[in-house]
């Protein structure tokens, strides 16, 4: 969505909305995003986000570019790939009143590949974000750029790291962050 400073709310009215195909090839991947000041909200139903299978950490099912926003609210979400990524100064993503199960490396992530991706905002409110893969190499939320992270009344669970904060400011209130630390495919460091 690229209508300058526009907005759209997709109300699922309790129905199921599926993006992509569960067993699609990586070449069929396409993030749904907001750019150029656009605000995208998807609310009220079940969201199957099968549009992002590429495990490249720079991809996500939903992306917000500079000065744009993506909000997922009152949803039950099943996602392949990473769920959300803000990229660009002033970008924001929000997960509100939702249950999300994600099979990518990250539930919500940032990209430190370019300084233009700094200054983002991530909000998780009254939600359950669960990230799991067969190999156990998952992180619920990874932040490696200057940012603002707010987690309130939520649960974030993953296998390697619950929340990884490398930069910025985080406020976590009345929430549970966990990682079960079960990796099934990893390189053991030589300690000789």
Folded structure, characterized:
- With 192 residues, this protein is an all-beta fold.
- It is 0% helix and 49% strand.
- The model has no long low-confidence stretch (mean pLDDT 86).
The major sheet is characterized as:
12 strands, parallel
Low-confidence stretches: none
- Spell the H/E element sequence: EEEEEEEEEEEEEEEEEE
Structural class: mainly beta
Cα gyration radius (Å): 16 Å
Q: What is the number of helical segments per DSSP (H or I, 4+ residues)? A: 0
Shape estimate: globular
β-sheet strand percentage: over 45%
User: What integer is the average pLDDT?
Assistant: 86
Helix content: under 10%
Number of strands: 18
Distance between the termini: 54 Å
Oligomer: single chain
Tell me briefly what this model is.
By secondary structure, the chain is an all-beta fold.
Features:
192 residues; mainly beta; 12-stranded parallel β-sheet; 3-stranded parallel β-sheet
What does the secondary structure layout of this molecule look like, with pairings?
Blueprint: E1 7-11, E2 16-20, E3 32-34, E4 39-50, E5 62-64, E6 69-79, E7 84-86, E8 92-96, E9 99-102, E10 106-109, E11 120-125, E12 128-131, E13 139-143, E14 147-152, E15 155-158, E16 161-165, E17 169-173, E18 176-179
């Amino acid at each position: 969505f690229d209508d300058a400073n526009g907005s759209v709310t997709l109300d699922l009215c309790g129905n199921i909305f599926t993006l992509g195909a569960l067993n699609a090839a990586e070449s069929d991947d396409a993030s749904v995003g907001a750019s150029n000041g656009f605000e995208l909200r998807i609310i009220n139903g079940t969201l199957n986000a099968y549009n992002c299978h590429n495990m490249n950490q720079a991809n996500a099912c939903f992306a917000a570019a500079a000065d744009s926003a993506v909000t997922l609210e009152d949803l039950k979400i099943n996602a392949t790939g990473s769920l959300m990524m803000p990229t660009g100064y002033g970008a924001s993503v929000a997960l509100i009143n939702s249950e999300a199960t994600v099979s990518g490396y990250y539930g919500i992530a940032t990209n430190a590949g370019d300084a233009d991706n700094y200054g983002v905002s991530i909000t998780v409110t009254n939600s359950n974000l669960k990230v799991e893969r067969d190999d156990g190499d998952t992180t619920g939320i990874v932040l490696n750029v200057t940012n603002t992270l707010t987690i309130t009344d939520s649960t974030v669970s993953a296998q390697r790291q619950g929340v990884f904060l490398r930069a910025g400011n985080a406020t976590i209130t009345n929430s549970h962050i966990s990682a079960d630390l079960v990796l099934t495919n990893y390189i053991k460091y030589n300690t000789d």
